[in-house]
Amino acid sequence: MELADELGEYCGKLLAGLGADVVKAEPPAGEVTRGYGPFQNDIPHVDRSLYFWHYNFGKRSVVIDLDTDDGRDHFAALAKVADVVIDTRRRDHLADRGLDYPHLAETNPGLIYARISPFGDDGPWADYHGSDLVHLALGGVMMNCGYDPDPHGVYDTPPIAPQMWQSYQIAGEMAVMSILGALSYRLRSGRGQRLDVSVHQAVSTNTETDMPDWVFLRQEHRRLTGRHSMPASTVPSLSITKDGRYIMPYRSYLSSFGASWEGELRLLRKYGMQSDLEEPRYADANYRVQPQVMDHIAQVTDKLVGRLLFDRDIWRDAQAEGLPWAPIRRPEENVDDDHWRARDTFYDVHHPELGETYTYIGARWYCPEVPWRQGPRPPLLGEHTSQVLDEWTPRTPLRPTRVPRRDSAAVSSRGTPFALAGVRVVDLSWMLASAGAGRFLAAMGAEVIKVEHESRWDSMRFGFGLCPPGGRAQRERAHEPIPTPEVTDPNQCGNFMEVNAGKLSLALNLKHPRGREILEDLIRQADMVTEGFSPGTMERMGLGYDRLREINPSLIYVQQSGFGQHGTYGQARAYGPTAQGFSGITDMSGLPAPFPPAGIGYSYLDWFGAYNMANAMLAALYRQAVTGQGCHIDASQGEIGIYLTGTAILDHAVNGRSWTRYANRSPYKPAAPCGAYRTRGEDRWIAITAFTDEQWAALVAELGQPAWASWPEFATLASRLAHQDKLDQLVEEETRCRDGFELMTALQARSVPAGVCQTARDRYESDPQLSSDGWMVELEQTDIGRWPVKEVPVRMSETPTYIGGPYDRSGPSYGEDTDYVLHTILGLTRAQTDQLRESGAL
């Protein structure tokens, strides 16, 4: 049962897609989000909101008036038989009506109650007001996203929030993850629990390399157009076509994971645009990475792209050469792509009450054995009230049919049970998009064994966030940025250790016959195998899904790549930014044209790829426990990117409207002012959102300009929306002389949603809410010592997560658990492992 606005509707949407019967409990006038745009034919109507259609697809609707005795009785009756309740109302809303979690749990001890709130229900900011913009500001996302500074290093454009409700989509992923973990725990214990999701904490854990660079090296990041934020400027990553569209000739920021130089030369030669790049000096990789040389190579590439139309699809020629190039598509340009159609990424959904069929975003991954749910269409207000009240009656609780192979009674270092104790995962992942998934399962108690080998390093071991030579002591003494140290071994990258926290490491050569045999022995005892290889790699090793099922008939196999194995793009090369360009996410972030897309200043789809993969793994584990069956899930970063484009696809299908950027404004939940405004200090900004006349009056009073409220052009929300350019200019004239944090505190005291655009330093050193939440945990790492690691941003009352996992530590040093896995788990003798080392299998 979902009692939720925009904070929780994405969570319910995911659960509905997984097959849950999600019933939306609405007040008599309908959920407030039925009033969010865009609308069918641009005519506001309670049953015509495209926002509501997108985020409530697959659900049913009941009308329950919680201010009446009958309504409260109906809610209590449904909650008594519900598996999950999602609640995003104000903190005391249900308690005031005798329907809070303690009361509901008395009649339904197995209930999982998921509470999603802006800042959590306790802590110094618990009563603060949020908005999508404010959360992306305070969570650090905005300070990673935007445009290059001017030649003097001064930012003349504001930080940019990725558009389309991204903060609530981040929180929704975390909520679903925790709900699925809690459901698995309930299967074996019969006990429900309360889950608390803070949007602020969830968003704050989502940024990528800015936090480890600050934590380890005291380096601050700079916003850069269409590419990763970095401590220093890098080569531009967008090239403009003849007709004013954009191509991303992507080059990874990981020097150990670069594109093929020979492939790039062949591409340029094909068009006779190689310039001087065939000269011998360019054959030297060390020469090519010099800044001025990289700039020159980029300029040569730009000239090629600038001679071609966007529809020439130069990116296809680049991909044929093994280059991870991408078109910067608008979201709707994916609808007719044969690849996504083959994967059921889009559905045609009939609305019988309208006599119309529209294209919706569909499956998040490809799994014919357990397909993503394809309906029903979004509910009309109260459409299912009598039906649900009749149908939702007591049922026999589900029980696991599969006996755990291992001890499921293990407790964490917190002294509490783990939700996934007894689960074993063989982790063949690498890089954040796939490796990041395992950290969430390890935090719930799963034994996650990372299988790796020096013949094909996980390049994150040599990435950003390197531990300084003097360790923690050097960092704590530092008052200036510490120069990035030379990489001398695979165990000094703090970012790798955080992404792989709680895992074991087995150094195993899968190119060696005995290495593959050992892997098969491990798979035989596992619940799941995950991998992030290029599509087809497992088949080439003789370990495709058919073979995996022979080894272990109930095995779950989850793979993730840029675009998925099934379909026409199976061999395409991709990183997070490549998938972002394809999906439409890059084009959706930025100032309106003629500005180029700003994109998202980190591998956003690497984190969302990890979230998506983790939720696939958790859903499959629950199904495996109930049915005894495994499955094969073929996931992709591109698909999850399309899923995050919100109403853009529907707006095009219904209204024929192509996506256009709207910067930091809020056109669909109208607000004015709504933007990021300068405050005192270098590159300091505050996000402010005023949805109501009351918030507007409070804002102008705090700014010392109460007369603005009576000006005709600002007297109503509609008039303020019509004069936003003038309004933004006036607001910034007042904010730029104020301290951002003091202004935020003053505005929040007046119930105005406001938040400083926080840096990694702000969140790490001075955010009182994150500190109160315990958002980081100190963990030991064998080689680099004790450092903070971001915890899972959800509190679980019965089975609290612990990012150190069952082994209470940060990420593993390379191969440090090889002997433990071989001797303790597989039962090999010392003589056998010595022989394996001599043969090269280890």
Q: Would you count the extended β strands for me?
A: 24
Please name the fourth-level CATH homologous superfamily of the domain at 424-464 and 493-644 and 780-839.
Answer: Crotonobetainyl-coa:carnitine coa-transferase, domain 1
- Helical content stands at 25-40%
- Helix tally equals 32
Order of strands, main sheet, comes to 12-18-17-16-13-14-15
Low-confidence stretches: none
Distance between the termini: 51 Å
Mean pLDDT: 96
Structural class: alpha/beta
General form: globular
Major sheet details: 7 strands, mixed
Give me the CATH architecture of the domain at 424-464 and 493-644 and 780-839, please.
Answer: 3-Layer(aba) Sandwich
Using the coordinates above, name the CATH class of the domain at 424-464 and 493-644 and 780-839: Alpha Beta
Radius of gyration over all CA atoms, rounded:
26 Å
**What name is given to the CATH topology of the domain at 424-464 and 493-644 and 780-839?**
Rossmann fold
Strand content: 5-15%
GO molecular function, one term: CoA-transferase activity
Keywords: Transferase
Pfam family, one: CoA_transf_3
Organism: Prauserella muralis
Structure description:
- The chain is an alpha/beta fold and 842 residues long.
- Among the domains are: 89 residues, formyl-coa transferase, domain 3; 253 residues, Crotonobetainyl-coa:carnitine coa-transferase, domain 1 (Rossmann fold, 3-Layer(aba) Sandwich); 87 residues, formyl-coa transferase, domain 3.
- 35% of the residues lie in helices and 13% in strands.
- It has 32 helices and 24 strands.
- It has a seven-stranded mixed sheet with strand order 12-18-17-16-13-14-15, sandwiched between helices. Strands 1-4-5-6-24 form a five-stranded mixed sheet.
- Strand 7 and strand 8 form a beta hairpin.
